[in-house]
């Protein structure tokens, strides 16, 4: 399984962009990068995913490097409600289906 | 609204007892998953099921059992063989064309 490496914690000022990095240097060609976030004591929430190209939705943007060994999740205008643990996950595809393997994530704290 | 319902939200168990955590989804998803989360840590996969009447062990299946008799339901039983069952348990589902949808979790405490 491709493993991911994320900083343990980050801080961001409210209204500024939050850029969360993730390294996945052993990712294989058919593995996607997924991002989820988890607010304390709730279930994780899907944010975005991508394979090679950069992706954008109403929540965030995902920038994947050309060699696919790292990616960055961008929250363009962080709010206090964006304070959460953010997980970068590489999707494992097996013959019986697919599953997500979670690391420990990055605790993002948005400060007023 | 479509989603995943986990019940109960809080559960207390005496040592030596089996308990069953409920997970129901009305998203028509084929695949369902159970994860365990300990304080300050990420999620670890217990069991998953891709179709009805079929399921596979995840990374920490010992002391747990599951069934998948209906597409909508994937209950998890925490048996007395699980030595440290106190944790936050999360159920998820996916149709594999999109992201995973998670329930709100069950917090199990052994008393």
Keywords:
heterodimer; A: 112 residues; mainly beta; six-stranded mixed β-sheet; four-stranded antiparallel β-sheet; 10 strands; globular; B: 111 residues; 0% helix
Characterization of the model:
The complex is a heterodimer of chains A (112) and B (111). Chain A is mostly beta strands and 112 residues long. Chain A has no helices and ten strands. Chain A is globular and about 40 Å long. Chain A starts with 8 loop residues before the first strand and ends with a strand. The model of chain A has no long low-confidence stretch (mean pLDDT 90). In chain B, a hairpin with a 5-residue loop joins strand 4 and strand 5 (43-51). Chain B has strands spanning 4-7, 10-13, 19-25, 31-37, 43-51, 54-57, 64-66, 76-78, 87-94, 101-102, 106-110. The termini of chain B are far apart. With 111 residues, chain B is mainly beta. Classes of the chains: A mainly beta (112), B mainly beta (111). The interface between A and B is medium-sized, with 20 and 28 residues.
Strand content of chain A: over 45%
> Which whole number gives the mean pLDDT of chain B?
92
How many runs of DSSP E, i.e. beta strands of chain B?
11
The global form of chain A is globular
The separation of the N and C termini of chain A measures 38 Å
Major β-sheet of chain B, in short? 7 strands, mixed
Largest sheet composition of chain A:
6 strands, mixed
Oligomer class: heterodimer
The computed structural class of chain B is mainly beta
Helix content of chain B: under 10%
Helix content of chain A: under 10%
Distance between the termini of chain B: 36 Å
Number of strands of chain A: 10
Topology:
The complex is a heterodimer of chains A (112) and B (111).
Chain A (H helix, E strand, L loop, with lengths): L8 E5 L4 E6 L9 E6 L6 E6 L4 E2 L4 E4 L5 E6 L8 E11 L2 E4 L5 E6 L1
Parallel strand pairs in A: 1-10
Antiparallel strand pairs in A: 2-7, 3-4, 3-8, 5-6, 6-7, 8-9, 8-10
Chain B lengths: L3 E4 L2 E4 L5 E7 L5 E7 L5 E9 L2 E4 L6 E3 L9 E3 L8 E8 L6 E2 L3 E5 L1
Parallel strand pairs in B: 2-11
Antiparallel strand pairs in B: 1-3, 3-8, 4-5, 4-9, 5-6, 7-8, 9-10, 9-11
């Amino acid at each position: 399984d491709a493993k991911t490496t994320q900083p343990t914690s980050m801080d961001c000022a409210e209204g500024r962009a939050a850029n969360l990095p993730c390294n996945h240097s052993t990712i294989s060609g058919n593995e996607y990068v997924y991002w989820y976030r988890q607010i304390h004591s709730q279930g994780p929430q899907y944010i975005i995913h991508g394979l090679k190209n950069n992706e954008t939705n109403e929540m965030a943007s995902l920038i994947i490097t050309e060699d696919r060994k790292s990616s960055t999740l961008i929250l363009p205008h962080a709010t206090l409600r964006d304070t959460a643990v953010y997980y970068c996950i590489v999707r494992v595809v097996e013959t019986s289906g697919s599953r997500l393997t979670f690391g420990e994530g990055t605790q993002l704290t948005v400060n007023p | 609204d479509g989603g995943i319902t986990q019940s109960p939200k809080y559960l207390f168990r005496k040592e030596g007892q089996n308990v069953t955590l409920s997970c129901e989804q009305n998203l028509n998803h084929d695949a369902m998953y159970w994860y365990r989360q300990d304080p300050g840590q990420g999620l670890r996969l217990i069991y998953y099921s891709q179709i009805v009447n079929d399921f596979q062990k995840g990374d920490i299946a010992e002391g747990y059992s599951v069934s998948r008799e209906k597409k909508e339901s994937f209950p998890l039983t925490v048996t007395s063989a699980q030595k440290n069952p106190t944790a936050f348990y999360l159920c998820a589902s996916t149709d594999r064309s999109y992201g995973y949808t998670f329930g709100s979790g069950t917090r199990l405490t052994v008393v």
